[in-house]
Amino acid sequence: MTNEPLPAVGLGTWQNDDPEQCAETVAAALEMGYRHVDTARFYENEAAVGEGIAAVDVPRQEVFLASKLHPMAEGLAYDEVYDGIEESLSLLDVNALDLVYVHWPVGNYDATETLSAFGDLVDDGLARHVGASNFDTELLAEAREALDIPLFANQVERHPTLPRDDLVAHAQKHDYRLVAYSPLGRGEALDLPAVEAVAEKHGVSAAQACLAWVTHPDNVVAVPKATGSDHLGDNLAAADLELDAEDIERIDAVEARERFVDREGAPWR
Questions:
Q1: Is 176 a catalytic residue?
Q2: pLDDT, mean over the chain
Q3: How many domains does the chain have?
Q4: What is the pLDDT of residue 17?
Q5: Is 264 exposed, middle or buried, given 0-12, 13-18 or 19+ CB atoms closer than 10 A?
Q6: Alpha carbon 96 to chain centroid distance?
Q7: Is residue 88 part of a domain?
Q8: Is 266 inside a domain boundary?
């Protein structure tokens, strides 16, 4: 695993598309102690995210900023990758991203051409790391072979009803991070009896119990979306919650399975 630290809990901004609210949320999160912010061109909120980062007295180098290029929006041909990141950097008002993801392996995504461009973004100083999003193990193997630099992360939906143990194990084996989006299962995971029981045992919220489970392997981090200060603070506190083996086994035993994010052409279809 790269030695660069990445906080267990970051800030997700998917569907936070009200510019004023988004900027205020990012600023509040950074003031509260968040240091990992996740966005995407497809979210149409990069300008607001950039405003939030600029509004606080937190050095840019302390904020791990990630964005994504979408095959159906910017396109993922070589020149489109460069056009896409230049637009993202302009909207975010930063010189470089800490991590740039391939948002989905669909459309005109081509492992050789697309990842050659992503690797060149790093060489040119426009990004520090390259990641994948919504990739399965077969596509990850192809991507790692196509890249001349290490893959830094794979971002996927992960929560108690979609644990993706195969991807957790793959990330551990090949020394990259798994970044969990929708780690609360759009709120549905908070009503699971196993999650409620673990939360009650530790005297914490169901959200904290769920996030602590999602991030208990040391190669997994989560980027839950939140807007209000209470939710932001509650999610961040999950990074300090240590679950024991009994807690992990209890949530592992959840049998229900549900996916909340899907699209035509996704690898699991």
A1: no
A2: 96
A3: 1
A4: 87
A5: exposed
A6: 18
A7: yes
A8: no
Listed in sequence order, the residues at least 6 apart from 91 whose beta carbon sits closer than 8 Å to its beta carbon are 46, 47, 50
130-153 pLDDT per residue, tens: 999 999 999 999 999 999 999 999
The one-character DSSP state at 162 is: B
Length of the chain: 269
- List the catalytic residue out of 43, 101, 109, 176: 43
Could you list the beta-strand ranges (E) of the chain: 11-12, 36-38, 64-69, 99-102, 130-133, 151-157, 177-181, 220-222
Query: Per the structure block, which two tokens stand in for 41?
Result: 């061109």
Domain range for 107: 11-185+217-227
Residue 1 pLDDT level (bands cut at 50, 70, 90)? very low
Residue 218: per-residue pLDDT: 87
Angle at 3 between CA 175 and CA 96, to 5 degrees: 100
What is the percentage of the chain residues whose pLDDT exceeds 90? 95
pLDDT digits (tens, 9 = 90+) for 213-232: 999 988 999 999 999 899 99
Could you count the other beta carbons within 10 Å of the beta carbon of residue 10? 24
Q: What is the dihedral of CA 73, 77, 83, 86, to 10 degrees?
A: 90
CATH of the domain at 109: 3.20.20.100
Residue 210: inside a domain: no
- Identify whether 143 is part of a domain: yes
241 CB-side CA count, 13 A: 27
